[in-house]
Design goal:
single chain; alpha+beta; 4-stranded mixed β-sheet; 4-stranded antiparallel β-sheet; 11 helices; globular; AcylCoA_DH/ox_N; flavoprotein; Acyl-CoA dehydrogenase family protein; AcylCo_DH-like_C
Length: 379
């Protein structure tokens, strides 16, 4: 019942092999260290850059891989299939860097992208604020023009790569009275006066993900750091969020497939009542349901990956992919935890780690409720 995945080419699969070896060799042995430190180490970022695993879709003339969206998906799939937790490569490469490629000036691309592609500059994107959540048009961080500079004031929360980042793409209001039509995107280097990182947030899962609060207290940045047009940032965000949601869908299905494999192995080995857990009809029926849902999720998401490799996916299509993939993942994880019994609650088992690490997929990138709203607008 293995699916013939026709969405990827030979060059995609070559990258998959390279990525799998890298994550197994360079990341998994460091996982316990990262979890304890609450962040990934910078040397691994630099190694990923040297291996060509950062910014694989950024044009080669700026130091990137010059690939397409399929290369991004392959990397995301292998990262999450490997069991590595908290290494926010997609935030850096597939969510933040594309804003510079798509909306940046030639000078901005030449100035920023080579170091980003090498891993010398780690990126974060700052949209969410305390009290706003998914409601981006209601953000309150402001950027006031003062001559050749913007003065930024406000705060952001739940920022991935927040402790490690060297540069942040900040969504802020340049016209506070204009709602979504007053949002702009400004690049802020973290060594600027007035920028401050808050506490590392104590999350339910992903302890190695350096998620934190960011504060801007009269941070001055040159007007040249404006990305795209002033007051046009909300439109940019809506265009790029579709890709972010599809990436989440892609790795959610990859993780589900791996967890199903591991659960089947477990129930066939686990002894219970003079047999194995596999011998119970309930176990087989549960796993049959999970297999069917996994195949459905894989088929749907691969279709949308193929669509996005040839054209920009619509907001509604990306919402369908993310909603179905993440909701399916969570329901199946819950069922597989149950099949593990008490061991399903022990973090030494992959299913327990997934139980804490992947609940967030139904929240970040836009909650499931936001995805349903987006889908319903086209009904």
């Amino acid at each position: 019942m293995n699916i013939n995945r026709t969405v990827y080419r030979e060059d995609h699969e070559m990258l998959r092999d390279t990525a799998r070896r890298f994550f197994e060799r360079e990341c998994l042995p460091r996982q316990a260290e990262w979890d304890k430190a609450g962040r990934t180490d910078r040397e691994t970022w630099l190694k990923a850059g040297r291996e060509g695993l950062l910014c694989v879709t950024v044009p080669a003339e700026y130091g990137g891989g010059g690939g397409d969206f399929g290369h991004s998906c392959v990397l995301a799939e292998e990262l999450h299939r490997s069991g590595v937790s908290g290494f926010s490569l997609s935030v850096h490469s597939d969510i933040t860097a594309p804003y510079i490629v798509r909306f940046g000036t030639e000078e901005q691309k030449q100035r920023w992208l080579p170091k980003i592609c090498r891993g010398e500059t780690i990126m974060a994107i700052a949209m969410t604020e305390p009290g706003t959540g998914s409601d981006l048009k209601s953000i309150r961080t402001t950027a006031v023009r003062d001559g050749d500079e913007y003065i930024i004031n406000g705060s952001k929360t739940f920022i991935s790569n927040g402790m490690n980042c060297d540069m942040v793409l900040v969504a802020c209001k340049t016209d506070p009275k204009a709602g979504s039509k007053g949002v702009s995107l400004i690049m802020v280097e973290t060594n600027r006066a007035g920028f401050r990182r808050g506490r590392k947030l104590d999350k339910v899962g992903q302890p190695a993900a350096d998620t934190t609060e960011l504060f801007f207290d009269n941070v001055r940045v040159p007007v040249d750091n404006l990305l795209g047009e002033e007051n046009k940032g909300f439109v940019c965000l809506m265009q790029e969020l579709a890709q972010e949601r599809l990436i989440i869908a892609a790795y959610s299905v990859a993780k589900l497939e791996r967890l199903l494999e591991q659960t089947i192995e477990y129930v066939k080995e686990r002894k219970a009542f003079d047999g194995t857990v596999w011998d119970f009809q309930n176990t087989k029926f549960k796993l049959a349901d999970i297999k069917a849902q996994t195949v459905a999720a894989r088929t749907l998401v691969d279709y949308y990956i193929g669509e996005h490799m040839t054209r920009r996916i619509s907001v509604q299509e990306a919402a369908i992919a993310k909603l179905f993939a993440t909701e399916t993942l969570w329901k199946c994880i819950d069922d597989m935890v149950q099949l593990h019994g008490g061991y399903g609650y022990m973090l030494e088992y992959p299913i327990a780690r997934a139980f804490t690490d992947y609940r967030i997929t139904r929240v970040f990138g836009g909650t499931s409720e936001v995805q349903r709203d987006l889908i319903s607008r086209k009904l």
